Amino acid sequence: MNEYVYPLIAAGLGFVSVLLGVYGVFGFLSGAGNVERIRDRVHGGRADNGSALGHALRDAGRSLARMFDKLGSRVAPKEEERENASRLKLVQAGLRKPESYRVFQGAKAGMALIMLALFMGARTFLFDDMSMGATMFAGAGALAAGMYAPDLWLSSRLKKRQTSVTNALPDALDLLVVCVESGMGLDQAITRVCEEMRLSGPEISEEFYLLTLELRAGKKRADALRALSRRVGLDDLNSLVTLLIQADIFGISVGRTLRVYSDSMRKRRQQKAEEAAAKLPVKLMLPLILFILPALFATIMGPAIIMLGDVFEVLPN
Predict the structure, then answer these.
(1) CB proximity list for 273: less than 8 A, separation 6 or greater
(2) Is pLDDT above 60 for 50?
């Protein structure tokens, strides 16, 4: 039994090592790219991404996107309701290109096929004695994992973007209050906040920029604000949009409305931070019990146990 188990363990450890190495390389490259983008924003220029590795990665990404686009055009659901829901989620995650829906659906189908192929290769070379029932069950699991992996990535991207908007929204509201109370109209104030938040809050600056473009195109303010709320999908922004629409309808002071809502939002953010800090000791308990305490006990009690073993070996029977 051991002669079959040990190679599998070694192969698993090798796979995990290669996976962690690839993840570390990509993390280093993305971190370097973030540093370049931040330096670029500070100096007001554009990052130079003309390296051979950058060009190779971009070309590979574009080729893969074109392949997923062709695959997605064949396998994407044709129901209008499902398509609209998927497109809305992609827009909320910041993916607004017309072909994003087809590429995403193609990625789901492609990942499912890749996971199934990997499982069949592992089954052929490593688990050749697997029964037919277990093979079918594991193959279905590999298909499901490949199908839902892009959904998990999209949910993570959406949550990260909404978190960024949530963190930048109180500052944007303070700037709106200052601009409105200084005599600007709401449209001019939104344009100015869009320019000022370009570095500190690029996500909310982008959303305000789209709102400004819709207002300039002649769209009604209420409709443009509702479109902003749908694009972001955030409860705090939904409440702000509702307050602005009601203030516009009933003639309430926009500056006073924004100031009251900004104060309440800052209090909520402070309460969330205090709640997260209160949860921290509970979250630290699990790694403390599983990793830190056993190592501490082994360090403290290990020499004593070794000495006791030597003493009992010396004693006569």
Answers:
(1) none
(2) no
